[in-house]
Amino acid sequence: MISLNIPQHLHTFLKAKVKHFIDNHAWNIPACLLLAYPDLHSLTANITIPLRDNVDRRCWKHSHDGDLTMKDSYCFHCITGQQFNWSKIVWNIDIPPSKSMVAWRSLQNKLPTDECLALRGCHMPSMCSLCESDLESNQHLFLTCRYSQNIWNWLSSCLNFNCQFNDLKEAFVLCNSSWSPLCNLIVAAAIVNCVDFIWFARNQSRFNDKKIHWRSLINHIIAAVSLSGNNSCLKAKSNISEFALLRKFKVKMNYGNAPKIKEVLWQPPILNWIKCNCDGASMGNPGSSACGGLFRDANSSFLGVFSYNIGISTSLNAELIGAMVAIETATSKGWSNFG
């Protein structure tokens, strides 16, 4: 009615339904209506008529199924607020809210640093309480101060990632899908606690005249992250990189349930024979590759082992090289009964 510009006072007289203008699954609009409303033909031409007869009903075009819910109407009329990708990372159920609050205020530039107080009209001589060599601002205190950089350099060594950021919000990019849920928590907790304890060290220096060495601060960060990780039920992946990360923060590894458990039994070779179990693998195809093998006799006694770093290669090539090295090793040892 709105598209055809039908006057409001005529709406109550419109009693016909859509099904009255459909005949044999095709539009059948009276000529008088097409003459009165020329745009009606173009409007109906863009509407596909279903092959099956359906009951007429009102549909909400802004939803995928045509149903209108209270949530749909609210989202349609409300003003979209700011969306922060880091908000759910900071406010984590396994991170104490007191620490999340400090990180959140820092990300919003709401902490009472000298720069922020000056913007509010409270002017005072400014000096960073940690390095005592520059004006105190949110950017300087948490990112460019020598004291803070020592903390971030330590975190870089733990994560094997460069933690030099232009903005504190960039730090939370480290929490990504490549990590398991437990390691994502550890990374988030480490970043939040780094911010919290830097602010703690600043307050201790300014108000209590107590200097805390940055290495002591690292011990506090590890203890806080360990508490968050060990109290969590999240799972970790079974790989060496995540194991090393969790070990650095003294967090026990929660393994996920195995999708399928398959029993594998090793059988010794027949009498007077030697068996070699060899394998090759690559990280990527091609990628960093290596191969190795283990020799045992009919009594399951250990006879020898080998391992070689092949470099950049494919998994097939690593498998073949592993088999060839096993044969060469057996030949050099004079093991003729070898398999």
From TrEMBL:
**Highest taxon in the source lineage:** Eukaryota
Q: What is the lineage of its organism?
A: Eukaryota, Viridiplantae, Streptophyta, Embryophyta, Tracheophyta
MF terms (GO), sorted A to Z = nucleic acid binding
What is any Pfam family matched here?
zf-RVT
Identify the species of origin: Trifolium subterraneum
Identification of the protein by name: Reverse transcriptase zinc-binding domain-containing protein
Domain (Reverse transcriptase zinc-binding) ranges: 69-152
